[in-house]
Amino acid sequence: MAAANPQPPCTATRLQCEHLFTPLGIDAAHPRLSWQLADNRAAARQTAYLVKVSTDSAALDTHPIWTSGKMNKADILTAYAGPALQPFTRYYWSVAVWDKDGKQSPATRSWFETGMISSRNWKGAWISDGDNVHTKPAPNFRKVFTAGKPIQSARAYIAVAGLYELYINGQKAGNHRLDPMYTRFDRRTLYVTYDVTSLLQPGQNAIGVTLGNGWYNHQSTAVWNFHEAPWRGRPTFCMDLRIIYTDGSTATISTGKDWKTATGPIVFNSIYTAEHYDARLEQPGWTTPLFNDQQWHDVIFRAAPSKNIVSQQLYPITNVEEIPAASMQQLNDSTWVFDLGRNIAGVSKIRVSGAPGTVLKLKHGEQLDKNGFVDLSNIVVHYRPTDNTDPFQTDIYTLNGKGEETFMPHFNYKGFQYVEVTSSQPVKLTKENLTGYFMHSDVPPAGQVNSSDTMVNKLWWATNNAYLSNLFGYPTDCPQREKNGWTGDAQIAIETGLYNFDGITIYEKWLADHRDEQQPNGILPSIIPTGGWGYEWGNGPDWTSTIAIIPWNIYLFYGDTTLLSASYESIRRYVDHITDISPSGLTTWGLGDWVPVKSKTPVEFTSTAYYYADALILAKAAKLFGKTADYTRYQALADKIKSAFNAKYLHTDTGIYGDGVQTEQSAALYWGLVPDAIKSKVAAQLAQRVADDHFHLDVGLLGTKSILNALSENGYADVAYKLAAQRTFPSWGWWIMNGATTLYENWDIHAASDLSRNHIMFGEIGAWLYKGIAGIKPDETAPGFRNILLSPQFVDGLDHFEASHESPYGRIVSAWKRNGSVISYTVTIPANSHGDLFFHLSPQQKIYQQNKLVSTIATTKGARYQVNAGTWEFQIK
């Protein structure tokens, strides 16, 4: 008997198109194709690759429509450059790789499908129910059609201004929540593609669509004036259901005048507050073919919300995690309070039986008052209701009395740990009657941290919970009080997001929102998207540097220039505007070090630091894209800013910036404003200041980005860790020791204001654990972790620490353990990558590998040792 074919030692794996696996509805003219190298051998690397693309899987190897040709490169990302892609077409693609010995692997295959490609290919009309923006009940729409032949495949393409749920023959299509993602609706509208083949049947079929308001028709009133948004309208949609029959013929079922509409049981829905549902108004079977819709009404045609209808290509929002109630207390005959045991963003689902007309109110909050009732006082401050019919974060459900009923809102999410249920008539509830669902953009995890300090582990977990609670197709500040895309919070948390999750698709969408919102003069609003609020308050370099900082970080983490290139002109206009209003090189435009502990750094100081960072990123991008004149201009601008900054704020004799508070010393170091000759003096002053502050934080939002990094990058990792692991007020650890399962908005957990209990703005700690202790960093000269900079810090107070990160090349691991006076350090470099290790040693310490002394090169960053792909173990003693 012949032996089975051995697995080749080197293959391409994890094939992605546009950073997604086998996506539907691709509109990109030159979609990005990427892969990893699966090769466990030491020093594994790719010496060449060959990509082929075809519409015919059988002809892919022999007659592709496009091939890259054999490229003698280690690249794992390329772009399709063949004939123009056709709409509604599945493209098969393969990649073969050559290994370190020049041996070719068998090709690995995948596919992607195109969508509309062009707005000209839509057949459907934009339809609505004819009601106005003040109509509260959500509209339902339906159409029956006949599939006369055997079906091979079917795709639904649906574009919506508002939110929707799509049903076919009584079943919901897909598991997405809150689609489509929020955009500036009058400038860009998203459509979503579904494979609905399995939902169709021979003969008669029915399509049902429910529309929700979302941010398009904001019926709740709050300080940001979304109810006055220029795009506001009654929700509307356009849909094409495209069927391919087994005989090769096609049919398209489109929205038009042959659809019917009626309102249903969702009698009110607000993305900001809650949902009201009257189960007595349900019409069973309305999404099935046999339903009698004679009482339904004709639809009306509507203008498209924008001329820019584009495919939604990102990880969707879903009910990611189901969380049973941890406990339940009955407070009186009509009130129960459920505790999930942790703070989340999402919804609750209740199962209940009761008399018809019984009204349940489900109030969602983060804290309880002294009597055990849900208390909304910490999150309701910006709500401006005009009456009492729309209580904050309170779903209202009216029972139909037909046995056990289940309710979960369709078009809403909240931030909460507790749910207070009140009933207008007697019902029986137990702990098992209510379940929470943690909702967020379902981005794949990309990082893991574990240490000997359980508080640090809980802090990492809580930081991730806060990050995910604020990721809903765009990064937000908090999931309850605002749900706004605050730029400052997002630029602070970008590295925390990217170390821990594969978030590129979300950020590419959000930076398109930036481009939609930018004024011709370069100004951006402080919240994105916006209905107009935020151009006059809260913006400035310290917040809206998202336009530069996020594309630059995406480039560093993914080695993909697409977003940076798309954002280049916006960055340039933004930097030019700051220059126009700040000719001296110093700028006072900004919000400053928000929610500080006690010391307040001047706005000019922090905003100028961000202005410098933006100019430097712009100069680097110009160099990368071959824009020589721009590079010269903006490098000179960065030098001018740096000189003006140091002339005003640096005391060269002492190494103190300004008043020498934590934010001033650390921001100057972190953003690269300190002259090389004086860095050690400035860092020493920072470390001394932290010691004088008893190793407690004295920073606000902007200082949290710089404080730990400035210490660990300049020889004071032990001080940084002591600060990071502090357990008494003010500190991250203080929150954890007081039961926090997410991050808070204020260091003072008893503050009278600014006390959301689920904010990401202080979330840089989640990135610093990777950078400052594990020492994992991308290398801007070989981005995407093609070369990995590893600078582990064996800090006092920990016995072991391990962090891993799933890079575009594969899994990076940096782990160390203390055994008495000996430290064991293990590092894994993925195939096709390599690393520079920088060890920080005392004069007495030496590095060994398998009991042999390791020869290193002394550098300013530490003792340097280079490694190729593989797992390497060292002993420091």
From TrEMBL:
Residues 330-440 form the Alpha-L-rhamnosidase concanavalin-like domain. Residues 446-772 form the Alpha-L-rhamnosidase six-hairpin glycosidase domain. Keywords: Hydrolase. GO terms for biological process: carbohydrate metabolic process. GO terms for molecular function: alpha-L-rhamnosidase activity. PANTHER family: ALPHA-RHAMNOSIDASE (EUROFUNG) (PTHR33307), ALPHA-RHAMNOSIDASE (EUROFUNG)-RELATED (PTHR33307:SF6). This is alpha-L-rhamnosidase. It comes from Chitinophaga eiseniae.
